[in-house]
Design brief:
- It is built from three helices and 17 strands.
- By secondary structure, the chain is mostly beta strands.
- It has one domain.
- Strands 3, 4, 6, 7, 9, 10, 12, 15, 16 and 17 form a ten-stranded mixed beta sheet that branches. A seven-stranded mixed beta sheet has the order 2-1-5-8-11-13-14.
- The mean pLDDT is about 95.
Length: about 270
């Protein structure tokens, strides 16, 4: 018997992607590859021994109840850069909350650079996002960038109300080396206008480096950031940067050179080009 239209659950996006690397012939190669639903992974050709992966959400954005799960593992001595095809757009949620979870494993002497493009939060959107990282030892290197835009300023959009919870947990062996939770809820425009939060800025980002070069990279990064609305600190083998900007374009002007410094001169992935 067909269910009445008013009792039908709304269609939701579901996606799951997994990528595992291996070292073969001095290059990072593919060991495992899995994709399901709206989660797709593409591996462009590179001219270096490193691997680059581009994550794609074919649903075109997320709304309440959508779920995406990513899993990335770089085995010993491999190097992997992971980015996204475009900005992830979080649309108005009539019901429920979208969920994005990412698990990253970095083997001994391996490196993972997690460089997704900006997440755009639209008015009345709702998103829970979680990043869990496991580093094998002190020779493992991890770079993470998460940038958020509260609407699109160029389109006259503003995030007035919504929900956003961003959770990071990074472990080296059995030790927790970085943890943070960031929450925006209800009257986001009033909250973000406070001097103690975003000071009215609509674009912000967190950059994290965990690896053997944290102390050496700090002065270079501070020189790169100059007098911008950014701060960088280093302690116990990790480096954390916070950035604020009045627009997504201005934020990118800060992020791109900062990422290049952390990547020892390597540019951002080509899909980042405006």
């Amino acid at each position: 018997m067909q269910q009445p239209a008013d009792q039908c659950a709304p269609q939701r996006a579901r996606g799951k992607g997994r990528l595992v690397t291996k070292l073969f012939g001095g290059r990072t190669r593919l060991a495992e590859f899995y994709q399901e639903g709206c989660a797709k992974i593409r591996l462009p050709n590179t001219f270096s021994p490193d691997m680059e992966a581009i994550l794609i959400n074919t649903s075109g954005g997320l709304t309440g109840g959508d779920v995406i799960e990513w899993s990335v593992a770089a085995t010993a001595s491999t190097r992997l850069t992971v980015t996204t095809q475009a900005n992830e757009k979080i649309y108005r949620a009539a019901d429920d909350t979208a969920s994005v979870t990412t698990h990253i494993s970095v083997g001994s002497g391996a490196a993972v650079h997690w460089l997704p493009q900006e997440t755009i939060l639209f008015d009345q959107s709702s998103l829970r996002r979680r990043l869990d990282v496991e580093l094998h030892d002190t020779s493992s290197e991890f770079i993470a960038v998460e940038a958020v835009l509260l609407g699109r300023k160029a389109m006259g959009e503003c995030l007035h109300r919504g929900f956003f919870l961003d959770t990071w947990r990074v472990r080296r062996g059995n030790d927790l080396v970085h943890a943070e939770d960031m929450r925006l809820q209800d009257d986001v425009s009033a909250l973000s206008s406070q001097p103690s939060t975003l000071g009215g800025h609509v674009a912000f980002a967190t950059v994290l480096y965990v690896g053997p070069l944290a102390e050496a990279l700090l002065p270079k990064l501070r020189e790169c950031l100059g007098e911008s609305l950014a701060g960088a600190s280093q302690w116990k083998g990790k480096l954390v940067v916070r950035l604020l900007a009045p627009s997504g374009y201005e934020l990118r002007k800060l992020l791109v050179p900062a990422i290049t410094v952390l990547r020892n001169g390597a540019p951002v992935p080509k899909v980042w080009n405006i």
